[in-house]
Amino acid sequence: QLQLVESGGGLVQPGGSLRLSCAASGFTLDSYAIGWFRQAPGKEREGVSCISSRGGSTTYADSVKGRFAISRDNAKNTVYLQINSLKPEDTAVYYCAAGQLRSSWFCVMRDYEYDFWGQGTQVTVSS
């Protein structure tokens, strides 16, 4: 069974950090681009970051540039999202997704390009 499982979410104070993990089972991530998306209550899902299947090319939403960092460890079949300097507006359910995009060397944050999705992990930023 092909599955993505996110973990690492939680309640954190503004300015804090978390590392989210996205672990795959039933398939290997190294041939997939991985995207992180988030959805806050009452808002549409938005792309946060992605990493290409080859070359490690990354893309970030303007709202998270300089604070979030995506990385992949193919040996562990896991992708990470390091999130720093958290703000209350970062509160959302964070999802990872895997897709075989047209280019192996770049990625895009269009959710319809991604085929497999995790169940999400809640990140709450509050004092």
Q: How would you characterize the overall build of this protein?
A:
With 127 residues, the chain is mostly beta strands. Helices cover 0% and strands 46% of the residues. The protein has strands at 3-7, 10-12, 18-25, 33-39, 46-51, 58-60, 68-73, 78-83, 92-99, 116-117, 121-125. The strands form two sheets. Strands 2, 4, 5, 6, 9, 10 and 11 form a seven-stranded mixed sheet that branches. It has a four-stranded antiparallel sheet with strand order 1-3-8-7, with no helix packed on it. The protein is globular and about 40 Å long.
User: What is the N-to-C order of secondary-structure elements (H for helix, E for strand)?
Assistant: EEEEEEEEEEE
Mean pLDDT: 96
| Major pleated sheet | 7 strands, mixed
Write down how many β-strands occur, each being a DSSP E stretch of 2 or more residues. Answer: 11
Radius of gyration of CA atoms, rounded to a whole number: 13 Å
Number of contiguous helices: 0
Uncertain stretches: none
SS class = mainly beta
Q: How helical, in percent, are the residues? A: under 10%
Strand content: over 45%
Give the gist of this structure.
This protein is mainly beta and 127 residues long. It is 0% helix and 46% strand.
Write the SSE topology.
Blueprint: E1 3-7, E2 10-12, E3 18-25, E4 33-39, E5 46-51, E6 58-60, E7 68-73, E8 78-83, E9 92-99, E10 116-117, E11 121-125
Parallel strand pairs: 2-11
Antiparallel strand pairs: 1-3, 3-8, 4-5, 4-9, 5-6, 7-8, 9-10, 9-11
